[in-house]
Write a structure and sequence with these properties.
With 545 residues, the chain is of the alpha+beta class. It is built from eleven helices and 26 strands.
Length: 545
Amino acid sequence: NSKKVALHFIDTQLHPTDEVGILSYSATKGLALHEYLTSDFQKVRQVIEEFGTKKTIGRAQDAEGKYWQELAKTVGTSGELGKGAGAEFSRWMLQARSFDRKIYKIQARNFCSVFMDVAKTLRYIPGYKHLILFSGGVANFAFSGSLPTQYENLSKELRASNSPVYAVNSVGTSSHLKGRDMRGMYSLSKLANRSGGKYFDNIVNLEKIMEDIQNATCSYYVLGYYIDEKWDGKYHEVKVKVKRKGCKVYRQGGYFNPKPFTKYTETEKMLHLIDLALSKKPHFQDPLHFPLIVLPYSVKEKSHLVVLTKIPTERIKEVLGRKVEIVTLFFDRQDNIVELKRDEVSAFKLARDNVYFYSTSILSPGEYDCGVVIRNLDTGKGATASSSVIAPESPDSGIILYPPLLLIPEKNAFYLKGSATGKKEKQRKKISLLDIYPFPFTQYSPLVEELNQGTSKLLAVVRCSTFKIEQPEILLSGHFVHLSSGKKILFSLSVLNQSREENTEIFLAEIPVGELKLGKYSLHLVAEEVNTKSESHVSITFFVK
């Protein structure tokens, strides 16, 4: 029923300018961010449809209810103490129940603590953020000790961050059949009402729920006034009054001044990072941008890739401080994070020109998006880069030509290598960019940005793997295409050096570019194995400025 209501809401109530995200929480797996704020409703719909059809990280569960159901199955009774069980088992049941309830209370407090961080983070996203919560709630017996205060503070924080909760009881009217201390309606209604939202007791009444949520969220006035911004994180209450009688005002409770990045919680910092990495228009800041290339260079059981960027130290100098972090992320087609690496870099290493950062990854064949975030650890200022890559699959036989690493005349480059993850990659941690792409590094550097018009030649390191071919002989050829005109430009490719690494031929080739005019080009390369006539094609794009 929860899935049905959520899908109905997406299909009938959302507007093209809306953004939707999906969070879930479970006692065993904690908080999971399944989808960040996006206007791609089909993507959100797909995530919701997958709930219940496979293991979904972070899926909320009625832990205590399931525990007692399973226990009842084990003893073959309805779970009542003493029926069909000896005195020893009855005592064990009482001890287990007491222990289980203590664990449940701890889990309830953990839930409040985690969502308090989420609520604090929502402060920095402008406007109203309507939270539609599908849950069975926290059982009444857990509301003792510090939990009522935590729950009250959570409700206030949600209201202050302009995030009213519309709580839908996912258990439905059957929750009324539970004992009073096991019901969760009180916690849901309290969270909804105190945060400025509304509680819905019967999930079956789908149309009524959607109508009420739509009425509460779709009609509003926007009022604005100037404020003095101070970086102290303090809360300022806002009051709105109307003269017309009989009106009820639903308003933003207030606003928070921004606070220093060093005062962020770990959850706030993580959501800040995800906002930078995933959003086309991040809510926390307008980041600077820099170029990025991702190149597959070998394939065995999995694909080996190198991530490479030139850090424009002058352009992003406001980001570079005493210490920065460089975070590299890979996302699959469903925007799941399949790899995340983090490196801390001191200002000393970045206080020079021509700084390149690279890291290597080993991923399963498929299509990926890659993002690199550079973030100042004192101010939170960030710069981002992104690119896409297809990690190839190993063929049974034949050849694979990989995208080349292009090189331009440039001296005194400095290279920073990112950390390794995974056992196989850590075993190869000594591998450097020059091991993958051998080139005269004192005279040339990778082409990551635009090519300056008038450059006479490029060097290209070209890798080509062969499979089940004895004594392979590879011939290379290529041409340019001027993308705006479609004009094909032939050139004579000269191989300066050739070496072999296991089943991979590595060529250092020279490509003339002196005649290229301003514009965007694609470089097409073809590798042909002479004996088997196997061919492989690859292309990359670049700009001439």
